[in-house]
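To: structure desk
From: M.T.
Subject: fold request, one chain
Message: Could you run this one when you get a chance? Sequence is below, nothing fancy, just the single chain.
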Amino acid sequence: MPYKAMNIEELLSLMRRLQGDREGREFAQELGISESYLSDIYNHRREPGPSVLSALCLTRKTLYTATPEFERRLANAGKRSSKK
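Reply: Done. Structure tokens follow.
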């Protein structure tokens, strides 16, 4: 079953599930990071970097979504180009 984390809170929840009852020191060692870096991630001071995501067998994908303003601008751009 594929797991998706749509935001940092969901990612942190998955990380806590993987950590289970283990001490932060042990989980950090498994991830190849310091315990303080793991603490910074859990306390929202830093985001997991590529090495952490790799150790978790996860990848980061960025999603760009249009705002209503973008949709309006796009519609207006189409009107301008059709007038030529």
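Reply (cont.): The chain has a mean pLDDT of 89. Let me know if you need anything else for the meeting.
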